[in-house]
Amino acid sequence: MIGGLPQERSYRFQSPGPTTALLTRGYDNPFWVLNMQENTSNVGRVYGNVNAEYVPMAWLKFNYTLGADYASDERVEGCPIGSTDVCTEGRVISAKIVNYQIDHNLTGTATYTLNPDFGGSLTVGQNLNTRNVRFLGVTGRTLVAPSPFKLSNTVSQDLPSDSESVIHDVSWFGQGTFDMWNQLHLTAALRNDGSSTFGQNNLRSWFPKGSLAWEFTKLIGERSWLSYGKARAAYGEAGVEPNPYLTSQTFSSACNGGIAQGTCNTPTQNNIGGLTANTTKPATVLKPERSKEFETGLDLGFAKDRADASLTWYTKTSSDVILLEPLAASTGYLNQGANAASIRNRGWEASLNMRLIQQADYGWEVGLQWARNRSLVQSLGPFGHVSIGDFLTQIDSVGLPVGVYLGGPQASRWGRTPAS
Q: Residue 363 falls within a domain, yes or no?
């Protein structure tokens, strides 16, 4: 111990002493981080829903569900005096994140039977959803006393980071089913979705889907080795909405720029309030990312369902994938959201379950699962490749799978292609 602090707080600093207490160590000793720093998260969550059902006729039913989900996360990060740069004099970061969601779902379902061999149902409904995310965080610098890790125990505080995002979604949908001979099942559906994250020109979009399933064992009858068999095929489309405010011009009074914590600039100077414009240009013509997927497969049961197997093949193409397109700085912006990419995924999924022992009081079941997916970036608009994370070494590149890595001075793609 030197000066009341653990001596081994950095494995890179030689011969520490009382006069070196506030000098940076380059990297903190892992045991110093583990035992001396504070990094807590207090999470609370409350959720629930109410349901109502009304059956005016035997063939007609209405359902209503109203649900709410509230979650809060209070975080404190405390760096003691003597930690590495940028908090050699101590630092406290206090933040609170609140997620609040309300969901309303109303459906009406009518069932019909034409005769013992033909029947089905028709469902129409509406969904309303609102999501609210709030964040408030403050950084305090230079501890007055070694503890506690409280903002009131710091000499100065940065400007607070105070943000809120709100998303409103509205959906209308309908689905019809038709069953024949209790073995052939048809389903068709259509959905119209709208979101506040889009611009005025593309507020709403249509998404269809359909499926066909045939329980062929009801036609050929069960066998001693085959107790159940179903062939199936399905097609569907789904959309992904952009991040909130990507289509709007936004302004901020928060700290911006800087090369390290505590070195940023504020738009408010000399007691005169100011705002800075977002460096992302509003994308007023954004469309939803649209995924089109087709799958087909078999479900089988063997030996009176003592074993079952499933095999599925699928292909999924996502088009109009939203990327941030770089812009010349002379435009006043750095990037703009654009529907630029197309990505394909294809693969197989298989499973096998065996119930080796089935008794009233105990049982033994063994299951195996296998899956393979092959992704391919088909296009990136005007880009040859885009960085998606990992310090610019993980990229999407046309003609390659999603998320390949750049490695080495020759920018070779690890395990993919030679250096290029």
A: yes
